[in-house]
Design brief:
431 residues; alpha/beta; 3 domains; 6-stranded mixed beta sheet; binds manganese (II) ion
């Protein structure tokens, strides 16, 4: 039988998902830690590999010790081994929480920024686990440059576990050059730090960010969960994502063209939300909360009314999908609606405010610009400059600057605002 490894990182025990009810215990990441332990035991997985940032911070020691220790204890009872490395969030607290005398099945690899290997053996099969742990909060050198393990047996499967920032040269969180993975006899590198699941290299070696197993905010959209590695042989490793996150974030665009009254807008929005969630039903078995960012698109003549009609959805809407225990809710609504104008070209010829806006909308859509838009951009830039030079923000200046991206974001933003204001203007004229 092939050996199996469940791998995950960035659980951040001590944190909770945003935008769900305060009293929902399933929103806390320790809930997902328990789910991970349950999954491993129930499915007879051989090894649990943890890639760092398991605990959110040093100050979460008391919150993390209970769930972690009881999870380790249950894994020990089921004869399951755990290999882990520490990340930038738990470099200090994780070693304290791993009591290797109490739990002989738990192994923290590479304490204090060294490389370390341990061989896992079962039923005559072996996996060499290698790892490096954060020694301090900030690390600005690539840990792979100090890679040194002389005793690796090239005939055995080797799995590397590591926390760091691949492809970000100037990162303070262990910048890693992807090419440095290639030069060692390691078949799979399983990484932590980035919360979005991502395959960086499919094979020889596999390089994989499993992502956070519990989606924490709307920045972490789509399916989240650990990955299961089935090691058939050194050159045949299968990987499958296990969707264990109880929370899922999504974005949905709904076209409200021709929905002119409150009732039809409400009906369209709720039925589209339900339809979208329903279409993902097969993936929602373990999801208790699906939380949407809603974008209204299309043409409409009453943008102000539209806002009033849909805004209560954020506080009040809470619908269960039939057949699964998933609740649908909305976190945020964005209006990306175009004004309903009979003839934009005609309107653009007018020198009225509506005419100037129409002219600018047409130009921006064609990748061009107008004097009006140029002036706005100019003003925007000079405000950004004075913010960057202001003493108030001095402390931030070393890490971040307020920049505007002249090509993409700013144009899209201007276009959206022109549409919004024009719709409002026309709405007023029609009243
Ligand atoms: Mn991290």
């Amino acid at each position: 039988m092939a050996l199996t490894v469940l791998a995950t990182g960035d659980i951040h025990i001590g944190k909770k998902s945003s935008n769900i009810k305060d009293d929902a215990v399933e929103g806390a990441t320790k809930y997902t830690w328990d789910r991970i332990v349950d999954y491993v035991i129930k499915n007879n997985v051989d090894v649990l590999a943890l890639t760092g940032d398991i605990v959110d911070q040093d100050n979460r020691y008391f919150e993390a010790i209970g769930p972690l220790q009881s999870g380790f204890e249950r894994l020990k009872q089921s004869n399951i081994s755990v290999y882990m490395v520490a990340g930038n969030h738990d470099f200090e607290v994780l070693p304290q929480l791993v009591d290797s005398e109490k739990h002989s099945n738990i192994r923290l690899l590479g304490a204090n920024g060294t490389w370390e290997m341990d061989t896992f053996s079962k039923n005559g099969k072996n996996i060499q686990f290698i790892g490096w742990s954060f020694p301090k909060k900030y690390v600005s050198e690539d840990p792979l440059l100090s890679f040194k393990i002389s005793e690796i047996d090239p005939n055995l499967t080797t799995i590397g576990i590591l926390h760091g920032d691949v492809g970000v040269d100037n990162s303070n969180y262990a910048p890693i050059d992807i090419n440095n993975f290639m030069s060692h006899s390691v078949q799979a590198w399983i990484l932590g730090h980035i919360h979005k699941p991502e395959i960086l290299n499919k094979s020889e070696p596999i390089v994989y960010y499993p992502g956070s197993p519990h989606a924490l905010s709307a920045k972490e959209q789509g399916i989240h969960g650990p990955i299961l590695l089935t090691i058939n042989s050194q050159t045949d490793i299968e990987i499958k994502q296990i969707p264990l996150s109880p929370v899922r974030y999504e974005t949905l665009s709904v076209d409200i063209t021709d929905k002119t009254d409150e009732a039809s807008v409400r009906e369209t929005v709720t039925s589209k939300l339900y339809e979208d969630a329903q279409s993902k039903k097969i993936e929602l078995e373990n999801v208790l909360f699906i939380i949407y960012d809603l974008i209204l698109i299309g043409e409409h003549s009453k943008i102000k009314d539209l806002e009033t009609w849909v805004n209560p959805i954020i506080a009040d809407y809470d619908q269960e999908i039939e057949g699964v225990a998933t609740q649908i809710s909305v976190r945020k609504i964005e209006l990306d609606v175009q004004p309903k104008v009979e003839n934009m070209e005609e309107l653009a010829k007018e020198s009225s405010p509506a005419g100037v806006l129409a002219k600018t909308i047409i130009a921006l859509q064609q990748g061009k610009t107008t004097e009006f838009a140029d002036n706005l951009l100019q003003e925007w830039k000079s405000i950004c400059n004075s913010i960057n030079q202001s003493g108030t923000y001095h402390a931030l200046r070393t890490t971040e600057r307020f920049e505007i991206d002249e090509n993409q974001d700013s144009t899209q933003y201007l276009l959206k605002e022109c549409n919004r204001i024009l719709t409002e203007l026309i709405g007023q004229q029609n009243q």
